[in-house]
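Subject: mismatched residue count in predicted assembly?

I count 733 residues in my input, but I want to confirm that the predicted structure covers every chain. Input:
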Amino acid sequence: MFNLKKIAPATYVLPQEEGMKVPGLIIASEELLSFPDMEEPLKQVRNVAHLPGIVSYSIAMPDIHWGYGFPIGGVAAMDIEQGVISPGGVGYDINCGVRMAVINEKFEDLKKDGLLERIFHKVPSGVGHGTRNNTLNDKEYEKLTHQGTRWSISRGFGYKEDLEHIESFGVIEGADITVVSSHAKERGKNQLGSLGSGNHFIEIGKIETVFLKDIAKSWMVEEGQTYILIHSGSRGFGHQICQDMLKELVEKGFAKNLPDAQLVAAPIKSLEGKKYFSAMAAAANYAFNNRQMILHQVREAFFEICGINPQSIRLVYDVCHNIAKFEEHMINGQKKEVCVHRKGATRAFGANTKELPSYFQKTGQPVLVPGDMGTASYLMVGRGNPLTFCSSCHGAGRAKSRVRSMKDWRGKDLISYMDKKGVKVMASSGATVAEEMPDAYKPIDLVVKAAQEANLASIVAKMRPHLVVKG
Amino acid sequence: MKRCFFGFKIFAPWPKLPKNSRVLTEENRHVTLAFLGDVSSKQIEELHQVPLPAFCFGPVGTFDRVIFLPKKSPRLVAWNIRWQDAKMLNDFLKRLQHWLKKHDFMIQNRKMLWHVTMCRNHFKTKEWQQNFFSLPFIVDSFNLYESLKDSNYQILWSHNFLKPFEETEHTADLAFSIRGKNFTELYYNAQLALAFNNPAFLPFCVLEDKKKKNIEDVVIGLNELIFEMDKKIGSPFKAVSFHKNIKSFKDNLLEWEMIVDV
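Triage response: the counts match. Full output below for your records.
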């Protein structure tokens, strides 16, 4: 039905058909393509190719699955003059992302008794669980959305040196809180520093195997070391911003002539396009602060239980999964500024990219790829592949619906099951654990292998989770 | 002779109920419409001619409180019903009663108290009161039941309704097929679908006086309710997407694929 043509290792072209402005480009292995439920996301890749101003390809990452308008694991770059910006191309959870920190202590040597419980207690998680002490007023909202992560750090939630280890130094320029609705501010005011529900998590485990020793060494990552992964986003604040803009764009008729109303998009240079970008940037900066404050709580828990100095818990990197950014890329041999939508995809700049801090210019940027909670997560390094606008995968990608997962695991003791697999799990809701069981996801090993074969990113280290907090 | 009655079989997101009491099993829970007493085989044949409901979708409603019956020395625990369209149900009941009387079936003439019996004898009133919270339900079928021993019932014949909503598969989000005669009904049924998935949503539902002209109106209305829930207690639903996949379903009925970001 899709007539995919292999053009390079783990790289397929989805031919351009009537209405498509560019062909599709699918990064996947044959094994990944043979997974059930690939039809809907591939249709979405085709739909995205209809958007005005799309450049080169409508791209799918190896962890692609069915999303809202755009597939999750989708990348699309738009011409600044002719192109559009689409809230569905970023997703509801604006700047949902993941950060990784390491501790210079072997996981085996770590005093673990009570650590998971303390983290679970300190970091609010689950539906409706926000922060206890932080209520944002308009003034603080203005500062937070303008300053990005510097806002948290100036209030004692972390350290200056963290900033160099966050994508875009922890701030998306161009945020404007005045275009954000009171509904969005209301939803977000008590949620800063909280994990949320769904697939958000905190994971602690061991760096099991290092593959690229030189790069790992330069990032001070070692085998046996303890790592922390934090996955969260912009909470209700970002969701409401996305919803408000979708409503406005649909009401103004921007969805006309699109194959799917969920692709609704405004010209980048239009008032609506500029408004969306400003609001999206505000949500992205909220999300950076959210992860910063969660890391702060986790650092405190390590201090309280293990006596580890919080400052010695080093942030390796923080990446955005759901974002639209203005970036320069080589297109047909020429450098051009485009608006890159990454939805369920990670920026994967290679070595010598000037946007990266000097620390990462020698190696390329870290690409963090969490898997399911029972298998493994990966630390990779970006290769700066121009074919995908320097993007790579963001996770394992769901293989099974939440409803199916709930049915399959109904009545079973999930916590004991995971415990036997060597993973201690705490969660606000048993239903979330059932929805997020390892078999709900594609095998992470296949996903990262495809990304590596297609030269999007290379595996630096494999990590094994042992302690997990779920929302 | 068989002890028979007409009733609705219902579905609800049943919670765990207090133990140590004679709780009716899920498959035996029903709404009694008319108790007929002992009925002969010939009469059972005759009952096939009973007027069937004119509505095609299974009626929907909510359990709004726990009641103990009879008021003096209660012997059973029941959940009181609030129908989404009470007039439609009362009209049908009148037609049914009228037919039964006309055909010489002995039925009681007291005022209808819409309820579902949950438990008989040996219950702790306080425990049931404390554990109750509002829930949505849908009617699955109109049935002639035979009453067996120990709160067990056998269906002798059925008239099935179309489902006003059904949860379907979606890889990343939640998806539902929502059905209705018009956009306002889609709006109501979509709310109940969400409340079925998570009953904490029920207090935020607005199930009357909200006319909806198109699917955008429906989506915007639902997202307003999700906002209210998220603001007050947190919401497991983040937003209903502007997914406009609507198709005609049977005779002039609408079916909408509702996708909910979670």
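DSSP finds five helices and 13 strands in chain B. Marking this ticket as 'not a bug'.
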